[in-house]
Write a structure and sequence with these properties.
2 domains, 23% strand, Uridine Diphospho-n-acetylenolpyruvylglucosamine Reductase, domain 3, 263 residues, Enolase-like, domain 1, alpha+beta, single chain, globular
């Protein structure tokens, strides 16, 4: 690990000032610290957000669940408010990584990092969530911009994410055994504006599958999902799975999600 300095800002404004000056924000550290240990990252200066109390916590605002950026995965998984309003989100959080990751990782860190195989981005996108930052609010459809890329500007940090409660939702994850990331994860949500289907692990970032959405909006059945041909042209191919295999998994996991939602 390269040498670095560690700052402990007490407010969001202080953290934003450090970030604007080049400091790397430390949310949960489950990706950043690992890359630093392997000397793949040399930030020079870290700004640890764990001391900012305003960034943690979960609350209900009518039919919306608002989750602070520094809220840990285990707290999302165990939250009575999340379980009542969006049980699929609690279930997703309960199966991220292992116990150590769930005890340290944060929802804001995961969403800001936007790993192409991370679980949370699929929930954010499928549920049509809103990302709150220190300067503005960003819709999920505008936030994710490809592999490890988001709409966040320099010096901008996530403060909270608000999730509108869906009518029903389900997340089906096919786990890559070594990393516990999603080889393919599919989040299906029946929202007030229609069915939304978000896929993670299969491409260069999370994405909505418009073909599946159109089919399920027309007829919310397993057969309808099964009839959609999944194009493998732009999907990932690596040592873990071919593009064709991932395409098949998208179909299978969507069918399983629909079946579970109909049960």
């Amino acid at each position: 690990m390269y040498s670095f300095t560690l700052e402990r800002p007490a407010t969001v404004a202080d953290a934003a000032k450090l970030a604007a000056g080049g400091a790397k924000l430390l949310a949960g550290g489950q990706t950043l610290l690992a890359s630093m240990k392997q000397r793949l990252s040399d930030p020079g200066q870290l700004a640890d957000l764990s001391g900012i109390k305003d960034l943690s916590g979960i609350r209900r605002e009518g039919s919306t669940v608002v989750i602070g950026a520094m809220t840990k995965h285990i707290d999302v998984a165990n939250s009575a408010d999340v379980k009542a309003a969006i049980p699929a989100l609690a279930d997703l959080a309960a199966h991220i990584g292992d116990r150590q990751v769930r005890a340290m990782g944060t929802i804001g860190g995961s969403v800001a990092n936007n790993d192409p195989a991370a679980c949370y981005p699929s929930a954010v996108l499928a549920l049509g969530a809103t990302i709150h930052t220190n300067t503005r609010k960003i819709s999920a459809d505008d936030f994710f911009q490809g592999m490890f890329s988001t709409a966040l500007n320099d010096g901008e940090l996530i403060t909270a994410i608000s999730f509108p409660a869906p009518k029903k939702a389900c997340y089906m994850k096919f786990v890559q055994p070594a990393s516990r990331f999603a080889l393919v994860g599919v989040f299906v949500a029946q929202t007030d504006s229609g069915v939304r289907v978000a896929v993670t692990g299969a491409g260069n970032g999370v994405f909505r599958h418009t073909g599946l959405e159109a089919a399920l909006n027309a007829s919310f059945t397993v057969a309808s999902a099964a009839a959609v041909k999944i194009d493998s042209a732009d999907l990932n191919a690596d040592i873990h799975a071919s593009a064709a295999y991932r395409a098949n998994l998208i179909s299978v996991q969507t069918q399983r999600a629909v079946a579970k939602m109909l049960a």
